[in-house]
Amino acid sequence: MGEVRRIMRQMGINADIRKCYTGDELLMEMEESGMFHIVLLDIEMQRMNGIETARRVRRLDPYAVLIFISAYDQYCKAAISVQPYAFLDKPAPSAALEKTLKEVCHRQLEEREAFDYHKNKVYYNVDLRDIYYFRSDLRKVYIIGKKEIQWFYGKLDEVEQILSRKKRLFIRIHKSLLVNWHYISCYRYEKIILQNGEELEISKSHRSLARRYYMDIIDEDE
What we know:
Elements: H1 2-10, H2 23-33, E1 38-42, H3 50-60, E2 65-70, H4 76-80, E3 86-89, H5 94-111, E4 114-119, E5 122-127, E6 131-137, E7 140-145, E8 149-153, H6 156-163, E9 170-174, E10 177-180, E11 184-187, E12 191-194, E13 199-201, H7 207-221
Parallel strand pairs: 1-2, 2-3
Antiparallel strand pairs: 4-5, 6-7, 6-10, 7-8, 9-10, 11-12, 12-13
Helix pairs in contact: 1-5, 2-3
């Protein structure tokens, strides 16, 4: 933990670093405190191993960067299923850890995309990775995020047009709903289920187009 803190400070990043001793503790920390951009995981842990912990982290946050640190090479194949960024030997050499963390931080800065809006003459921006979906109600657009719900005066059509120019993909499933596809855990013809368990209805007028768009995204992602 001290080495990670040193590397982050060296890069000029004031990181909020948490140390968890079990997979259960990490998942509880994520649910209570919010998601982590980077998760360093040992494979061999008490009760729940690093692979299973990573699977559950993925359900909570598909954007998290997973880095495994382990002395057991036989786990590499199993780890691929959770899409880790790197697999470092244990104990991780300082140079290798520093190189990996710098790569991740630079990549995250380059890939970060935000949605900008203003309210009461104040401008705000929200990381698209933190947004489950947008919902419109009369003249207001609500941003349903991981940590909070925000709103501003606007039209969902205008939001959709802005998001179409971004890399993060959102699907229109209803005249009043625009959903971040990364957080869809189950897609059915008449509704979707998000990774947080929330169910959202797909309107009849959007079912065919939404399904076709969703399948196109899945094909491209594979």
